[in-house]
Each structure stands twice: as C-alpha cells, then as structure tokens.
Amino acid sequence: EDQVTQSPEALRLQEGESSSLNCSYTVSGLRGLFWYRQDPGKGPEFLFTLYSAGEEKEKERLKATLTKKESFLHITAPKPEDSATYLCAVITSSTLGRLYFGRGTQLTVWP
Amino acid sequence: NAGVTQTPKFRVLKTGQSMTLLCAQDMNHEYMYWYRQDPGMGLRLIHYSVGEGTTAKGEVPDGYNVSRLKKQNFLLGLESAAPSQTSVYFCASRTPRTSGKNTGELFFGEGSRLTVL
Hints:
Chain A has strands at 3-7, 10-14, 19-26, 30-38, 45-50, 56-59, 62-66, 70-75, 84-92, 100-101, 105-110.
C-alpha cells in the first residue's frame, strides 16, 4: 500500500535557526513529489515539484531535495512569516490522476 | 481572474439534511478534486474528475456524490449528512501535464467549513 509520512508533526524554531522537514514515501512508480504550504484558514499553496532522485529546487529560504525514499524541505534562517503547515504529496504510476498527501508538519518560527 | 471559488464558505447542517457544495474554476483546467481536511488527518481525497462528464472515487467517497456537468464546475453533494462529515472541504483544480511531465500544481479554493449537528 502506498504511503506518505511526514515528520516531525510539529516543529518550533527560533528565528534564524535552520532545520529540515522530512517526507518519506513507500510507493510504486513515483511520478512526482510536491511540496505545499498552508496558512491557517487558507487552502494549500504550491511550492515545488520534484521528479527524480537527486533533483533540488529552491525558493527564497526553502530548498527541497529528493532521494529514492524521501524528500527534505530545508529551511535556512527562517523568519516568523515562514510559520505554516507544510504538506507533501505524490503522484504514482498507478494514481496518475490523483495526488495523495501526507499529514503535514506544522512549523512555528518565533522571534 | 478568480482562480478556484467555493460556495458556501460556512454551513451548519442537522443530521440527515442534504446539501451541495459548489466549486467553480476559471483557469480551463481539466482535472478537479474534492478533499476533506480534519485535524491530524491531512488532506484526504473524496472524489475527483479528469474531465467534463467524468468522475471517480478517491480515498474516502462514502456518503458523498459528485457531478461535473460543465468543465468549470465540480459539485459535491451530501445526501444525508452525518456528524462524521463535519470537516473543512477543499476543492482544487490542475492541468495534468506540462512539457510531458505530470504537474502536481493544484490550485485550491479557500475551503468550505461544514458542521453537522
């Protein structure tokens, strides 16, 4: 059975304290892994797409990487405005029309 | 350009009542989705559609029906609401492929908060 697991469930960082969020997957035929950000009371907002192991994407203080078993979202020198829930999702060869989401990591960055 | 619009944004129902959530997108996207989000459970796919006139079941379809009569609209119906259907419902849409690759860029609505008493 395909699974997407995110860790930790919650993470508190002081402003400027870099860290990483993890998304591990056990799926057959990964066709893409995606990261989203969700602010309270809002719909998720797309951040990155990763298609193959070794691929990296960057946007401001965020950097997403992908291996054959997991993806990391690295946050460098975070600011309070980076506080949000970060979700990862996958598309596989058997679920091409659908994205399956992990449960998310709730990130809080305090000044 | 409004993107994805969901109506209503809030609704309170009594057990056994029926209702329909409407999702409208103005981006000419082929694929549309209905998810529910519950605390600690993440986003779970209810039903989805890969084109006008087509629908398919997701992870948690029981108790829900959908219709996609027009490309821009995707309706989610609850025929007999139950307290277990209290949740935040999100509609999303996307174009399936860009440059030959699956694009996972979903565009989400703001959510519809449903409470069933």
